[in-house]
What we know:
Blueprint: H1 2-37, E1 46-49, E2 62-64, E3 73-74, H2 79-89, E4 95-101, H3 109-123, E5 128-136, H4 138-144, E6 149-158, H5 171-177, E7 180-186, H6 203-228, H7 232-241, H8 247-252, E8 258-259, H9 262-273, E9 283-285, H10 286-296, E10 305-312, E11 314-316, E12 320-321, E13 324-326, H11 327-339, E14 343-352, E15 354-356, H12 357-371, E16 376-385, H13 387-390, E17 397-400, E18 405-407, E19 411-417, H14 419-424, H15 449-474, H16 478-484, E20 489-491, H17 492-498, E21 503-504, H18 507-517, E22 524-528, E23 530-532, H19 535-541, H20 544-556, H21 558-572, E24 577-579
Parallel strand pairs: 1-4, 1-9, 2-23, 4-5, 5-6, 6-8, 10-14, 10-22, 11-13, 14-16, 16-17, 16-18, 17-21
Antiparallel strand pairs: 2-3, 7-19, 12-13, 15-24, 18-20
Amino acid sequence: MNFLKRVFSTVIGIIVFLILCFLGILAIGMLFGSGQDEMVKPKVNSVLELKLDFPIKDYAGKIVFPEYPFLDEHEKNGLFNIISAIEYAKTDKNIKGISIDNNFINAGITQTKELRKALQDFKESGKFVVAYADIFTQKDYYLSSVADTVYINPAGMLEFKGLYSEHLYFKDFQEKTGLKMEVIRLGKYKSAVEPYLDNVMSDNNREQINAYLSSLWTEIKNDISVSRNIPVETLNTIADSLLGRNPNLALTNGLIDKIAYHDEYVYAIKQAIGVDETKELETITIKDYAQYAATKIPVNYSASKIAVIYAEGDIIYGEGDENTIGQGTMTKSLQKARKDDKIKAVVLRINSPGGSALASELIWREIELTKKVKPVIVSMGNLAASGGYYIACNADKIIAEPTTITGSIGVFGMLPNGKTLADNIGINAEQVKTNENAVTYSFFEPLDDMQRAFIKEGVLDIYDLFTKRVSDGRNLTRDQVEAIAQGRVWTGADALNIGLVDELGGLDLALKYAAEVAELSEYRKVEYPIFEKDLDKILESFGIVKAKETLLKEELGEEQYKMYKKVKAISEKKGIQLLFPFDTEIK
Length: 587
């Protein structure tokens, strides 16, 4: 009898717990929902504050929770939401101008260039763009140089020195720890695995890095030269001698217009818009304004649609999410676009360093099927390299920005090996097998000749398939592809000259071409993917995983945590990889 009582009480306890959990989630959802209703609106004589210190993604993403729709998320802080908001601000009578105030932009060079173009267009309305910083990073200055007036704090700093990138090499580390990587690669420029093979940079790798950094720097200098009316040669001299390193030098050399404190900057804006100096300056952040502008931009009710499908992040084998490209979400998106008769064309916006070869091929196939039904135009963002180029190469037209990083047509396979480490700490692994090749790979044993031959064969097959896809998609001979492949990285400007892309421009140009090919005089844009979340993902979104990451950061420190994330990412990659050669942090 006591046993039955205990069972009954346990069951009742579980039911009560589940009810409380449900009510808790419902309360959180209602709280989120009520917060979303309280939209911030610009007041009279407002200044739009362009602070872009949050991670800028091309697509903010639409996330739906089928079981809990009150938790659905459809933020408007993606790159093109921001650009649309700047466009709308041109005609918003409440917005008098734009202030770029201590920005610390968190975006890629290509995204920064797109934002810069939006600001140039905004200025044509007659409204002002001004910029202020205590410290101008080089990327911040690139964006801010488009402003009518550029201010800096009297004790501030301005970085204008040219570009560089830094790459870590692990050969000695492997030997000291006993943990090494078994590497097989194809392409003399395919240097994603180079750090595990040597302690110094190869000449081929140095050649390609120098080439694409020089191309990016040329683009940045040309844009600044036009905005600031400074000859390109002079900008090179300024960079070489660091002639913008302090406010006085920056002013003398024409990089900035005024040295002032922040309160003086705010006072100048008040004067410009006729606000009394004793009153607060009304501002609205770009995040809030983008959300507001999305409700005000006139909706095109045309029956004809163009689908914009965003492929953003590493390519993985699996479903994918808002941070990764999986064949699961991409297949669903392409199939929806293909089967919807109202969708007349597809624009694939790619911002990816590549990843899984298998997933890239599966996405390529869906694009090939879609092409038979309606045109597919590719727009490249910061990156469309390796696997990112694989899924682009069969499009009807490829459009890239001059600063896009693309190409990297090469393949590698990499497996961690801990044989020496295991020996050093007294671990021995013994295998028992029924057939000669039953053991294809063991972390505790080095690859033997036969295993290495099998992996190399797979890498060769993928490389052959990759180059064939490029050859067929771009109408190039295999010899022509081989001459520009080998894992070589190109900027969009260089890729145009060698036939990897068709034209230079942004998403707007891709949409224009899509409309022309589909013979549309008007259309409305629909965006994919739509990401579905389950209960586990709901719990994750409430901070359980984030809390773990925060703890790791606190224990390891920022730099060590970055290394941990890199090692973890490598260990999670399955199969043969089509991946951009190295981390692309350009400084």
